[in-house]
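Sample entry as discussed:
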Amino acid sequence: MQIYLDYSATTPTRPEAIAAMQAALTQQWGNPSSLHEWGQRAATIVEQARVQVAGLINAANPDAIAFTSGGTEADNLAIMGVARLSAVPQHMIISSVEHSAITEPANLLEKWGWEVTRLGVDKKGRVNPQDLKAALRHNTVLVSVIYGQSEIGTVQPIAELSQITQQHGALFHTDAVQAAGRLPIDVQQLAVDLLSLSSHKLYGSQGAGALYIRPGVELIPLLGGGGQERGWRSGTQALPAIAGFGIAAELATQELATETPRLIKLRDRLFSLLADVPGLIPTGDLEHRLPHHVSFCLESADGEKLSGKTLVRQLNLAGIGISAGSACHSGKLSPSPILLAMGYPEKAAFGGIRLTLGRDTTQADIDWTAMVLKQVLERLVPKLSLATG
């Protein structure tokens, strides 16, 4: 029996997206920038996908969607594209629980003389909007706060944070990679200027992403070249990946009303089944939370014999795929910076795990996983004396 519970790392490409990708590879394989019939057929596929992705976030103008190679490039285009507009270093604000695709560009900007404020979060991983108000300065040009945190599942008050930023006159960006396709997002209602998306988080293929750029917002592109994507992202578009992204986005939009409550029910069941496990502490905000996301930390973790990675390996032996914290940090044995930012002691920050659910997850999967995890913990930490019945 194999159970995949790492949908926040990547999702299996759905059959409908694969069919669209195969058609692009075998039938509409032209260069979308070419003026002849082959090129125009390919261009039609790209523009259709642009409409489909725009529909996912209710963007009125599909031209506000710029395709990228993934969420990381979209984040970098947002941060560096805004920063490069300024002739001299300015001030930007991020949260202390951002993905590395935000923190690394911010660290680079600091080396270039920029001032970067990292907003603290509460024990649940949420930013206080009043802290944002206090942090804004006359030279703040950009605020970036993640929509749904990939490691602990917390959803930020994006509507309030973006409105505060807009009233101040700065630009607001959010990394919505984990939220899109799982929560309803309406950029016409939110005061967001820039929003990042990723295909492979919503059952499209790896290798495609997008940045929503509100009409009127200026960016300096990262890449110089042929001026594709209205100059925002030069380079021949990855036609098959974009075609699959479009189909996946359209189907995610259609299925949101039924899939989200189904995932919430399974998520809450897993939390409930593991609620009696001593030393297994739920992390993140249980109310303001991604619908597919379950996360814990081990109170008795030590970073050597017992850690989140230990549990990942043990469950993998049992045929269950989970993650230790963020997938982008899974190769390094170090305390989670996200859990540290939330105030957890370093010992517990070695013990973060996440179990993320998806379209193929069933109640039987949840029940089996809870039983196996209890058995693994009982073996690793005998003093817990867990009941596995």
Q: What stands out?
A: The chain has eleven helices and twelve strands.
